Amino acid sequence: MSVSPPGLVIFDCDGVLVDSEPIANRVFARMLARQGLVLGDAQMDELFLGRTMTHCLALAAERLGRALPKDFEAEHDRRLFDALAAELVPVPGVMQVLDQLASPFCVATNGSPDKLRFSLAKVGLLPRFAGCLFSAAEVAQAKPAPDLFLHAARSMGASPAACVVVEDSPTGIAAGLAAGMRVLGFAGRTPAERLRAAGAHRVFTGMDELPALLGTGVAA
């Protein structure tokens, strides 16, 4: 069956464009452990994957049964940015996908604007997304609400029905579905069954599969 070319491809950032999630999980898990909250990798993904930092901090405090120290977030951000600067790489194959795309594309993330720009700059992707960076800081409600994706589509002049979202978290998939968009689940690190259960229209495991899923939205 042929696939209609998308009017806009909306990429998530963490875990889709940049391979940041293992780094972020490690930094956050170590800091939480110092506060007495010890979580394994699977628990970190289940609780925090795709969520805003505000949500993650509130959930961690709830699990601890007390507020985190006042300087926790600032110290976390310092440690995270140091780790990203040293270790961050693009998701394998994503550069080639962007080279092939004929459809317009943008990025929409629950991460902060500073982290978004820093991450894309670190891996050499920032120039490719000039003028088409969107973060949850710009809307009333972050993912899983549809606000961010609808804002991105409106800003880029695309109708929601013509958009394809590329996401790696159930949170992001829920947002794309709520926005009335076609959603592709990238199971690079997230288990494919989690993405299918979240309602992704298609699930793929390698970026080399994405051009075919986007149909004629790729350049010859």
From TrEMBL:
The organism's place on the tree of life at top rank: Bacteria
Cofactor section: Mg(2+)
Keywords carried by this UniProt record: Magnesium, Metal-binding
Classification via InterPro entries: Beta-PGM-like, HAD-like_sf, HAD-SF_hydro_IA, HAD_sf, PGP-like_dom2
CDD domains: HAD_BPGM_like (cd07526)
Gene Ontology molecular functions: catalytic activity; metal ion binding
Record Pfam families: Hydrolase
Stated family: Belongs to the HAD-like hydrolase superfamily. CbbY/CbbZ/Gph/YieH family.
Name used for this protein in its record: Haloacid dehalogenase superfamily, subfamily IA, variant 3 with third motif having DD or ED
Taxonomic source organism: Frateuria terrea
